[in-house]
Every structure is written in C-alpha cells, then in structure tokens.
Specification:
With 389 residues, the chain is an alpha/beta fold. It is 35% helix and 15% strand. It folds into two domains: 236 residues, Aspartate Aminotransferase, domain 2 (3-Layer(aba) Sandwich); 124 residues, Aspartate Aminotransferase, domain 1 (Alpha-Beta Complex), CATH 3.90.1150.10. The strands form four sheets. Strands 1-9-8-7-4-2-3 form a seven-stranded mixed sheet, with helices on both faces. Strand 5 and strand 6 form a beta hairpin.
Length: 389
C-alpha cells in the first residue's frame, strides 16, 4: 500500500496527557502566579477562577460544591471513596482498568462490609439493571482504557437513597452530564481540556455534603483527603483554598484552556468536536475490514477514548505477545512518520489502537489519520511476514 501524502496537522492523539488546545503556546502562561504563595490574594483569585469557570461552562447546578484537589482524577475519586463510603452498602462497577482499581480499593483497602461488585470484560458494559441506587454506587462514566461508556443515566433513580459517585475524567466537556443524577463527580484538567495534570476536580451535590456532615468513617484519613474539620465542611476548599500546594503554572494552563473553551462557544462546541472525532473514526471503521470498535455495542462507544480491536484473522492467530509486538510496530511506524503519537491500547487492555478524540483534537486531523492506520497495518504486516520467512 502506498504511503499517504497528507498528514494530520497535529499528530497528538495520546489519551493522557492529552493534546493541548489548538494554538497553544507556553507564552500564554506568562501571567501565571509564580514565586508567590497560593494562599496570597492573587493566588486564591486564580484558583477560585478555575472553580467558577468550570461551574459556569459545565452548568453545574446551584447548591453543588466544586473544589480543586490533589493527585488528578485519581486523587479526587479516592477522596470521595475514603470520605463517603461505609454509611450504607455500595455497588462497585468495573469494566476497565480504573473501575477495577476502585473495586480493589473498596474491597482490599477500605474493606467495606457490604460491597457488591458488578463487572464486565473489556468491550462490554455491566448489566446496569442489576445496580441498586438505594445503595451507594461507584462507576466510571467513560472507560478511558476500554472505550466503553454508559449511554445514559436512566438506570439511576431520581429518588435514590444512595450516593452516585462518578469518575467522569474522560467524559466532562465531551458529554452533557445529567448532574441531577450524580452526587459526586470527578475529573482532571489533563483530559478533555488538554491542560497539565496533577490536579483534580471534585463536585459534591447537596446530598453528598449531607453525607459528609452526618457520617464519620471509622478509618484514618490522610491530610490531603480531609474535607471536614471538627465536624464542619472545610468551606475554603471550595473557594480556592486548596488542601495542599497546587502548581500555579498548571493553574494558569487550565485557565488558558477554559478561556479557549469559551472562545469556541462553550460546552456545546466541545461536545460537537468530540462527536466529530468519533464520527471520523466510525466512518473509517465502517469501510475497513481489519478493524472494529472494542465496544461491542456502538451505543456505548466512547467519543473520547476511541478504542479499536484488530479483527484480521491473521493477527488473531498470533500469540498475545506477538499481537502486542505487532501493535507496537504499527505505532512506531506512525511515530517515525510524525503521523500519530502514543496510540497503542492501554497496557492492560487487549492489544489494539486507542485514539484520543477529545475536544482539543481537530476532527479534520482525525480524518487525516485514518489512511495512515491502513498504511501502518499493511506495512507492519509486510515486515512481520518477511521476518517470519
């Protein structure tokens, strides 16, 4: 197969850290609050602006609390679990690596007495009809490592008694989340915003705040996990007074990304860009005979972490190690051509391709990448056959 001529203008398709916004330049961070305390007035203004602009752009309901927390989305999920779980039974959902991590924490670390796990293999979604939202529920909205997402929130009762704790790191800014169905929502700056990592966002509904104020877990909480002090909510955490020292350079980068979101039309535009990236891949998959979505149900296929499995019989006749080596060869060819970077599937997922389709990626670039995937597959297969001979 001939090598394509047209390349993506930006070859950044990594699923984390993700592509910077179009037109990004480090010079845009010159106004960062550097060399000063984050607790000084100017630092708190910057941090509070990150919170306020998230609330505004995402349409987070009045009465919900939003905070910047340490350790990216992982830290935000852990803070929620360690503070809130144990008051009632919990259903833990897992269908990819991060959901499985939260299950492991609930079972092996928190050692919860009444913990039910509902799992599915990569490419599948658990049976959501099994979930009892009168219990607490912990789930990922969008499985970053499997490319499988929940298609809606109809399975969550409006009059639920439990809390819904949603890891939404690959979903926020790519979908219009039903906030009224969610009691805790977490994400990180480095996903759909394409900002720098290490910081997470934590949103609490009034019901989640009520749980914090009425339930004291019988476990020690590290300082950076504590949302309560002497029985009262630490209000400063929701006003930019962070639980530990944040990077003010990363904060400035987040503000830059949020300003870009506003400049292109806000949430609806970021949703449309993500949907456009998915469509570019879906159109190609529909006419390509060697590849398919990892998601078995197209209605659950992610618009952001677009995971693909190679269906070619020759490929699937190989051993697991050989399949992984073949994908690495494909990815290396694309990297050497500066056509795409870092698009191998997650290490724990089936060997395949994972293309980030968040809002900072231009759908036209995604469309330009597709012929390169055909070329890389054919070239890697040719090299593999020649080597075997």
């Amino acid at each position: 197969m001939d090598k394509p001529v047209v390349k993506p203008n930006s070859p950044y398709f990594s699923s984390g850290p993700c592509a910077k916004r179009p037109g990004w330049d480090a010079a845009n961070l010159n106004s960062a609050w550097l060399g000063r305390s984050h607790r000084a007035a100017g630092g708190k203004v910057k941090l509070k602006a990150v919170i306020d602009q998230h609330v505004e752009i995402l349409g987070i309901p009045e009465g919900y609390r939003c905070a910047i927390v340490p350790a990216s989305d992982t830290g935000a999920v852990e803070i929620a679990m360690w503070n809130l779980l144990g008051a009632r039974g919990v259903d833990m959902l897992g269908w990819e690596s991060f959901g499985m991590d939260w299950i492991k924490d609930a079972v092996d670390e928190l050692k919860l007495d009444d913990c039910r796990t509902i799992k599915a293999d990569y490419g599948q979604l658990p049976d959501l009809s099994q979930v009892d939202t009168d219990r607490d529920v912990v789930f990922t909205w969008n499985g970053t490592t499997s490319g499988v997402r929940v298609p809606h929130a109809d399975w969550i009762k409006d009059d639920r008694k439990g809390l819904t704790i949603c890891d939404a790191t690959s979903a926020v800014f790519a979908y219009d989340l039903p906030w009224e169905k969610l009691d805790v929502v977490t994400w990180s700056w480095q996903k759909v915003l394409g900002s720098e990592g290490a910081h997470g966002m934590l949103v609490l509904s009034p019901r989640a705040v009520e749980r914090l104020e009425s339930f004291a877990p019988d476990r020690p909480l590290p300082k950076i996990f504590r949302l309560m002090n002497k029985g009262a909510l630490i209000e400063g955490a929701f006003k930019g007074e962070t639980l530990n020292t944040p990077s003010m350079l990363a904060t400035e980068d987040c503000l830059d990304a949020l300003a870009w979101v506003k400049s292109i039309g806000g949430l609806q535009s970021t949703i449309e860009r993500s949907a456009g990236n998915f469509k570019a891949v879906a159109d190609w998959v529909a006419q390509t005979d060697w590849i398919e979505f990892l998601a078995e149900d197209k209605d659950t296929a992610s618009y952001t972490s677009i995971c693909l499995k190679i269906t070619d019989p020759w490929f699937n006749s190989k051993s697991d190690d050989d399949r992984e080596a073949f994908v690495k060869a494909m990815v290396k060819l694309l990297e050497l051509e500066n056509a795409a970077y870092d698009i191998a599937s997650y290490r724990a997922a089936p060997a395949g391709i994972r293309i980030w389709g968040g809002a900072t990626v231009d759908p036209q670039d995604t469309a330009k990448l597709m012929p390169w995937l055909d070329w890389a597959f054919a070239a890697a297969k040719s090299q593999d056959v020649a080597k075997a001979a």
